Amino acid sequence: MTHLLDRLLQFRLVRFALTGGVATAIHIAVAFVYLHLIQENVFLANVIGFSLAFIFSYFAQTLLVFKNSVNWGNALRFFIVQFSALLVAQGISEIFSDMNSYLRVIMVVLILPIVTYIIHRVWTFSDT
């Protein structure tokens, strides 16, 4: 089993999926806690969830997935990609504003990884 896991982790897409899965779990957990304990505001729940997931995601994606150095240049590009994806996802979430708030959060976190992997691969970490 360990040999299989080691082989799978050699693939960038697998590492991206795993670290993205953890970042997504952070986003969902924080957003749900915010919605449940603080207030029913999907926008703020997603912004706070995104922010905490972003910090984890930047370091994990930079160091583990794309095996790049942490620096201001790729940090800025990473932020631009992630923030743009969040805005697009939030816009989509607002289109479905009559849906359950928890489902809207799920929609947002499912859209982000698809778009961001492609952009990070071809732009943010293009020198790897």
Automatic annotation (TrEMBL):
UniProt xrefs under InterPro entries: GtrA_CellWall_Glycosyl (IPR051401), GtrA_DPMS_TM (IPR007267)
Return the protein name: GtrA family protein
Any one Gene Ontology biological process term? polysaccharide biosynthetic process
- The GtrA/DPMS transmembrane domain extends over 15-125
Q: Which residues form a coiled coil?
A: none
List where the protein spans the membrane. Answer: 12-37, 43-66, 78-96, 102-123
Q: Which keywords, in A-to-Z order, does the entry hold?
A: Membrane, Transmembrane, Transmembrane helix
Q: Does the keyword Transmembrane helix apply?
A: yes
Organism, per UniProt?
Vibrio maritimus
Domain of life here? Bacteria
Q: Topology with regard to the membrane?
A: Multi-pass membrane protein
Q: Where located?
A: Membrane
- Which Pfam family, giving just one, matches this sequence? GtrA_DPMS_TM
Q: What is the lineage of its organism?
A: Bacteria, Pseudomonadati, Pseudomonadota, Gammaproteobacteria, Vibrionales
UniProt KW Protein transport keyword: no
The record's family statement is: Belongs to the GtrA family.
- Any one cellular component term from GO for this entry? plasma membrane
